[in-house]
Amino acid sequence: MMQSPVALDGLESDLAMLFKPVEPSPVFVESLAVRLKKPKPVQLEKAGKVPLLLMMIGGGLLIGVLFYLIFRLMRLLFQKA
Predict the structure, then answer these.
(1) Given pLDDT bands bounded at 50, 70 and 90, which one contains residue 30?
(2) Where are the alpha helices (DSSP H) in 3-81?
(3) Cα angle vertex 23, ends 18, 20, to 5°?
(4) Could you tell me the end-to-end alpha-carbon distance of the chain, in angstroms, rounded to an integer?
(5) How many Å apart are CA 38 and CA 4, to the nearest integer?
(6) Counting CB atoms within 10 angstroms of each CB, which of 22, 27, 63, 72 has the fewest?
(7) Domain residue extents for the chain
(8) What is the C-alpha separation between 9 and 17, in angstroms, rounded?
């Protein structure tokens, strides 16, 4: 539903009275324009050895759990025999 232009003009005038326009300093605007036009290069950090270390620890734990389960299974099989 579209509002009439008269209602929008009243809304705009109400907003203009409530909110005073902001006048940023020209120095700030110029420095912002320079930073936006020529941004500094971004350097990404390398992941490093942490994922490899976590995979090694996780693999070691998994192998340990598998050995434990195999040992328990063999013990159960040989106790019944």
Answers:
(1) very high
(2) 5-18, 26-37, 50-80
(3) 5
(4) 84
(5) 44
(6) 22
(7) 5-37
(8) 12
